[in-house]
Amino acid sequence: MVEDIRNHTLKELEEKFKSLGLPSYRARQVYSWLYKQGVEDFSLMVNLPKDVKERLKKVFVIEKLGLEEIETSRDLTQKFLFRLKDDALIEGVSIPFKSRVTVCLSAQAGCKFSCAFCASGLLGFKRDLSTSEILSEFITIRKNVSSPITNVVFMGIGEPLDNYDNVMRAIRIMNSGSGIRLGARKMTISTAGFAPGIERLSKEGLQVELSVSLHAATDEKRSGILPINKRFPINVLFEAIRKYYDATKRKVTFEYVLLGGYNTGVEDAQSLIRLMRGLNAKVNIIPYNPVISRIGFQAPSKLEVLFFKSYLAKNGIEATIRMPRGADISAACGQLKYKTLKARKQDAC
User: Fold this and answer.
1) Does residue 333 have an active-site annotation?
2) How confident is the model at residue 349 (pLDDT cuts 50, 70, 90)?
3) Residue 40 or residue 124, greater confidence
4) Which residues have CB under 8 Å from 61's CB, separation 6+?
5) Percentage of residues in the chain with pLDDT exceeding 70?
6) Are residues 27 and 150 in the same domain?
7) I need a labelling partner for 156 at 20 to 30 A (CA). Which of 95, 116, 254, 344 fits?
8) How open is the CA angle 58-55-180, to the nearest 5 degrees?
9) Is 349 in the active site?
10) Pick the catalytic residue: 14, 71, 91, 133?
11) Which of the residues 104, 111, 118, 333 is marked catalytic?
């Protein structure tokens, strides 16, 4: 059966090549073409003999993502809309800032968890992405940005820890010296609170960063905006986070979208402070930018934002205000996909 070659680690590929009667160094050559040069056609791998190329074509394919659209913001953030082979749509984002270029990658086609202020779940869940599809996002974006990619965040469409095996395989390939060669500390997994995945991550031995989309510090408020909290309430989530911290000693980042009048008060800040005691952690405060949503939230006032940050700081909590990027191009998760499908549906009527 023909399979996508990018679903394999180098070690697995060397074993596959041996079973085909090919020396392992050929696998390393192919790996270099795939990830260092980003080649997606065996015929372009010029240091492979013709007979080797023909044998590989009988066993492997290199599936390409269809690049449907690129939107570029005034702040140079770029949003990429990709079409998969089954016509599902996913998104990626590149965010240049000073000397860094951060890329956000999707892990699933659609999302099961339907966070209230996120567009990703509006059209439901279709399937997990394969390792190859995740890597193809990165490679396609790399070909379309002008500066080297320095950081990767799994913060696009879908919950990365719900597609654990494929995401971790992609991370190991990106981290490999024979692959993309991106440092583990330059990669972040952002989760809505998938507690079993956090516990698994603590045992991986990889120095990837963990970011938790918290957004509220009580079960009542968090369940109101993140349905995943009903499955993994705050006590279960923080038990997993503390196990992760005890095992890795790595700083945890909490993402906290400030929703005007909802999670911005003194009691909200105090609840958050209590949760963070004993952890080496920081908070990214993100003022809400109204987008497509099931619930009518409003942006916080400037006073709410400054108060929340200063209250955390006075109580010894490291906090930064992260302003939204790409607001003029629907750069938040799922927005471009939703907008595109909605427009096509209207055109068909």
Assistant:
1) yes
2) very low
3) 40
4) 2, 3, 4, 5
5) 90
6) no
7) 344
8) 90
9) no
10) 91
11) 333
